Amino acid sequence: MRGGFTSIQESDMCDSYQKYSYPKKAKNLDGVWFYIINTDEYRQGVKTETCLSSVKGGSCLYGGSEGIDPTSTVCQQFYSNHLLLALSSNGTISLEEFLIPSSCGCSINDESDGKIVFSQNKKKRK
Fold first, then answer.
1. Domain count, the chain
2. End-to-end C-alpha distance for the chain, whole angstroms
């Protein structure tokens, strides 16, 4: 046991919320709208994690505060690909790939060209 650390408080760098949903309609990776097949007998659920609107695009928090240089970090939404059985507008059933919001993470900005050089997207434990 280390001395001096009686309790460690964890806090998210970028606040988000999680939910489990059964989508009805979505655009695939090609930007085409599909109806997602969800019936009483066949259900396709997805778990999403979405940045709170109050933090998306804002600076990351370190122990509840913005830190020394708030402009060097930014909270951003990350996505993952999910395959779902879908119905096209012409009635064809196919397995399609969709982008689903998967985490809200902290990214470090490169001040020279504005590109993101490092991302940390901590998954919530629930």
1. 1
2. 26
